[in-house]
Amino acid sequence: PAVPGAGSWSVAFVDGGPALPAPIETRTLASWTTLGGEDAQRFAGTARYTLRFERPRAATSDWLLDLGDVRELAEIHLNGRSLGIVWTPPFRVDISSVVKPAGNLLEIEVVNFWPNRIIGDQSLPTEHRFTRTNIRKLTKDTPLMESGLLGPVTVLVAE
Predict the structure, then answer these.
(1) Beta 104-111 vs 73-78: how paired, if at all?
(2) In angstroms, rounded to a whole number, what is the distance separating the alpha carbons of residues 118 and 65?
(3) Minimal CA–CA distance to 71: which of 44, 106, 36?
(4) Of all residues in the chain, what percent are helix, strand and coil, respectively (each to 5)?
(5) Which of 22, 35, 70, 103 is deepest in the core (most CB within 10 A)?
(6) 7-29 burial code (b ≥16 CB/10 A, e <16)
């Protein structure tokens, strides 16, 4: 398998809150809770991952894109075309009809769950909290949940 993630990923937080974290450029996929600052740790919403890559050379026309580990669901666009939403392992889509030998633009929008936002809110004064909830199991001491595209992202020959 080839890893299109060998390049640099651009990560832009596009929708959600409590605040949109600053964009991230990274060569290594990891959770928002480690890649970003405090805003990324408390973030609940959508981030868009963008990468340009070359298709592997192989005597086939049948290709799959495997996202590896995703927290929690992802919509995949390749070269401007939506390839659908994946929300359960394996996080894979057929890219055969869209992938080109060179100059591919991959965009993946990943949405996480709410716990990190609720956990982050617990450390704020009540009047500054976005979430007001009766969920008592999530406190400021609750470990954060991994969020985002964790990878590894690979292009595979479909069998």
Answers:
(1) antiparallel
(2) 33
(3) 44
(4) 15, 40, 50
(5) 70
(6) eebebbbeebebebbeebeeeeb
The first and second tokens of residue 91, run together, are 């996080």
Cβ atoms within 10 A of the Cβ of 109, count? 19
Residue with tokens 């060569």: 27
Residue 33, helix vs strand vs coil:
helix
Q: Check whether 158 has a pLDDT greater than 60.
A: yes
Residue with tokens 């799959």: 64
Q: How confident is the model at residue 125 (pLDDT cuts 50, 70, 90)?
A: confident
Closest C-alpha among 53, 99, 54, 64 to residue 79: 99
Q: Which residue's entry shows tokens 């409590």?
A: 18
Give the global pTM.
0.88
* Residue 124: closest CA among 45, 44, 46, 42: 42
Residue 99 burial (10 A CB sphere; 0-12, 13-18, 19+):
buried
